[in-house]
Amino acid sequence: MPRIIRAVTRPPGPRTGVRSSTLRAFWLERLDKGGVPAGPINNYAEALSDPQALARKMVVDLVHPGAGPIKALGVPVKLSETPGAVDRAAPLLGQHTEEILIELGYTETERRGLEAKGVVQRWPIPGGKAQ
To answer: What are the boundaries of each domain within the chain?
Structure first.
């Protein structure tokens, strides 16, 4: 029987009331004992405070156009001759729509038509609020 099948065979007993962190620790330990390589799937806060991410200097400070100063994960691959970098936050919905449509050759009338049909959304969002 493959190791993964042996490792994930359900334990006896009900699952009600089990905290997700307890369940995660249970499965990681069980997979490890079964010789199956595995690791946790972290939420954003866990990823930003992960000792390995911090040791590799993967947490970067950025300014987001809607959220202000934020912390984000940087490039996981570290190359000495061609280092990559995360130097800006992810765009807001529609933030680059106009420039992309212009680059693709859409006229002003075509761009307004796409917006009127709800195909695209421009930034800033009407009313000045980011979604």
So the answer is: 3-33, 42-89, 91-131
Burial bucket for residue 107 (CB in 10 Å: 0-12, 13-18, 19+): exposed
Residue appearing with tokens 């079964």: 34
3-state SS of 39-90?
A: CCCCCHHHHHHCHHHHHCCCEEEEEECCCEEEEEECCCCCCCCCCCCCCCCC
| Sequence-separated (6 or more) residues with CB below 8 Å from residue 51 | none
Q: Is the pTM of this model over 0.70?
A: no
Q: Provide the token pair at 32.
A: 């490890």
- What backbone phi and psi angles, to 5 degrees, belong to 26? -60, -50
pLDDT digits over 11-28, tens only?
545 555 556 668 888 889
